[in-house]
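Hi V.,

You were right to ask for the full record rather than a summary. Here it is.
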Amino acid sequence: MSALISRTRFSVLDRSRTREGRPPGEALRDTVRLARESERLGYHRFWVSEHHGVPGVAGSAPTVLAAAVAGATARIRVGTGGVMLPNHQPLVVAEQFGVLESLFPGRIDMGLGRSVGFTDGVRKALGRDKGDAEDFAAQIEELLGWFRGNSPTGVRARPADGLTVPPFVLAMGEGAHIAARLGLPLVIGDLRGREKMRRGIDAYREHFRPSPWAAEPYVVVSGTVAVAGTEEAARRLLLPEAWSMAYSRTHGTFPPLPPAEAVETRAMTAKERGLYEAGLGGHIAGTAEQVAGELETLLKETGAQEVLVTTSTYDREALLDSYRRLATLFA
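Predicted structure:
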């Protein structure tokens, strides 16, 4: 076992991906089952995501789903990767996490992002625009203020007031500077843009200002990691997500995951094929030995303290097997 890998925290982000022919509720129940297994295997955190109006993702209410996950587990930290702050009033977000922390003290994380709806129609339905990085920074500061009792109106966020829920910034580019300026842990990806990711991490560390939330920089690198008995089997785990991504970029909608064998025989346009092939690259995939080598390289390059794994595939048993094989490298 690599000493570097064994002293690194490994966590899971599950996006509750739907599968062809299966109802959304099944994807949500699968997320809860995966959380239980992740806890058993020794993963540090289990996070859920926020997406709206996406056929391929059932997770639209992350704090609700986080409550179900926390209630079904006992020790693993539970949080969001993330709550998309432009979609919500900071007071409401503070209240939601205050409830979670009150119900599951010492186990809740608050991952925050600035992405909004996938399409113009979703953004219109949400009544939100993305805004710029400074808007996002101001929203984070307001949100954190509710936990510190800072309110110009005298209103208190109940039960958040006085509680400590660790905040994380999900970011690339400008977001890394925001995390540094506010003194917050940084979650950064994806693994396909290694050079851009390293620049973001370097900037974060260079400009980090200690805060009540973090005394020193803390970096979580996020991406897909697929482990199987053979290199080819690991690669097949990537096929459903790569096809769905290619389809979304050519049709404007993100579909449920198809089986790998269906992807292999599916007709694609030249543009779809190019996007699909590109989507298969830049991930960490292979046998346990191959993955260990790639993870060691990643950790040496980034100096990250934690890896957040976001793998999605159609075959749930193969996905669970991948997480089990990965756990043998660090547990």
